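Let's practice the habit of predicting before peeking. Look at the sequence and jot down your guess about where helices and strands might fall. Then scroll down.
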Amino acid sequence: MSDTGPASKKNPALVTIAIPEFRSYVFGRLCLVMALRMTATTVGWLIWQVTRNTMATGLVGLSEVVPALSLALYAGHVIDKSDKRGLTLKTLSFYVLAALCLLAITTPYVLHHLQNRWIAYTVYAVIFGTGILRAFANPAMSAMISQIVPRELLGNAVNWSQSTFLTASVLGHATAGLLIGYFNYTVVFTTIATLLVAGIFFVGRLKPKPSSQQAGTNQRTWGSVKEGLRFVYRTKEVLAAMSLDMFAVLFGGAVAMIPIYATDILHVSAQGYGWLNASSDIGSGIIIGTMTFFPLKRRQGTILLYAVFGFGLCIIAFGLSRWYFLSFGALLISGMLDGISVLVRGTIIQLKTPEDMKGRVLSVSSMFINSSNELGQFESGVTAKLMGIVPSVVFGGCMTLVVVITTWFKAPALRKMEY
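Done guessing? Here is the structure:
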């Protein structure tokens, strides 16, 4: 598990990427995340184009979050009992099927002959299916990290994993925008399906990752789920980090409004939309790439709170901007600050969680963090309907500031956290 190449001896930042199995994991994660980001970008643009309704755009997030949130705790129980590699391969195979369904829905013939509302309903149904898959796929992949690299290298492995995630996000968002602008939906979803097949290839190169639970353990599902919840509740640093990120993304996420800002406020094309959608991930990639080589040494908890506060300020700036490059810059900086949050939170969870509970704790994390993206998308759609587009984004940024201030006083364990 810990064989490393000569590059790691010259540069400690490369120590985990020198492990052959971890490299396969990184490439598999790159393909999966890029495919999913391309799907999210394309579906958001498609729904806005066929409905021109902010609520309909927000419903994309709700369609995915309902099954993901409902199944998250059960998924954690299954992951801890299962071969994580095999489970990931199964979910990737179903993701390919979902991409092919979206490919069929968006062919020129179907778009021309099917009513717009039925196109939207069908897309919601497919996204609901991917929400089921996401409840299992993301935690299963994250739980494999500690079975691939030694514990003392987990911090570096999390850096590489998050850098891969953000690189894939940037490429996914930007590639989707460019392909929509220069080609059509058929090309986009064909590319997505190809990436998913490549992801299956790389994950298939990993060794099996069996359950870390002791042989003979036959804990009932609900008892297993409660054990994971109790661990998160009792580990105050983990609970506070998850809660902070959840509420910051819930209120401060402007993703759902980006298609509307691109077309109606900033007046840019699909290519401009793609880059705007990728801007925060570009910022996150820059900061996490930097922190891979120059990691935080102390006061990580305090820095986390400062970063999320700055994230809220950037969302307010984006909401008020009428200039494309200012909007791009605000989201870029918000991504840099969010990158700090992602890295600190991910390292805390990996270091604090026992191996035999990784699946359950990471599933709880997915409820807090990953699902908050889609809930935030729905919240943005609702508040935009009630307040208007610009006030809803500014309101979300202000609420993020309130969340950080509250956490500062109510969660001293997180503020004082160091690792």
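How did you do? The domain at 10-208+224-415 is CATH 1.20.1250.20 (Growth Hormone; Chain: A;).
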